[in-house]
Structure formats: C-alpha cells, structure tokens
Design goal:
Layout lengths: L10 H30 L9 H21 L3 H41 L3
Helix pairs in contact: 1-3, 2-3
C-alpha cells in the first residue's frame, strides 16, 4: 500500500502528484454548489444531465477499483471514492427531483382533465 510516495529525484512527478492533490481537493468543493442547486430545484433538475453525472459515477467507480485492486494506493483510492460519493449524490438527488417533478406534473394534468369547466 503506497501513500503517494514520489521519488525526490523526479521533480516532474512530484509536481504532477501535487497538482493531482490540489485539483481533486478543489473538485470536491465544486460539487457542493451543484448539489445545492439540484436539491433546491423546483423544475425537476432539468439543468443537469443525469447521463453525464451517471457516467462520472461509473468512471469514478472504475478509478476506485483501479486504485484498490491494481495499484494498491490508499490515497488514490480515497480521492476516487470521495469523487464517486459526490457524483453519486448529485445523480441520486437529481433523479429524485426529476421523478418527483414528473409525478407532480402528472397529478396536475390528471386533476385538470377532471376539473369542471
């Protein structure tokens, strides 16, 4: 189990490792506004693509598998897992909002059809 050990003789590798850490730390923070927007959505979260977010869930799941099974790197796996959880949260909340909005819309259409004129 390696924990992001970068040989000191390779400054390019060290720089890439730090960029990986920093960009993924920033990425985790950027999930929060998207999750809040989806949570507060009143139109069924139509502004997000569930296909895109779902594909990111799958991509992060493969990164978790790669980190844990292939390279046995706890740090890499932890970052991938955190990204997986965040993408899954946006996807699940978005799907729930969309389902709730569609159900409410169907009830409104049905109620309108039976309303006296």
């Amino acid at each position: 189990m390696t924990l992001l050990t970068v040989p000191s003789s390779l400054p390019a590798d060290s720089m890439i490792a730090w960029l990986y850490i920093l960009t993924n730390a920033a990425r985790v923070v950027t999930y929060v506004p998207q999750l809040m927007a989806v949570w507060r959505s009143t139109d069924g979260a139509r502004d997000i693509s569930l296909l895109t977010w779902g594909s990111w869930v799958v991509a992060n799941a493969t990164a978790v598998a790669y980190g844990s099974i292939v390279i046995h790197d706890l740090f890499f796996t932890s970052i991938a897992m955190l990204n997986l959880v965040c993408c899954a949260a946006v996807t699940v909340v978005g799907a729930q909002r969309r389902r709730a909005h569609e159900s409410l819309s169907a009830v409104r259409v049905e109620a309108t059809a039976w309303a006296p004129r």
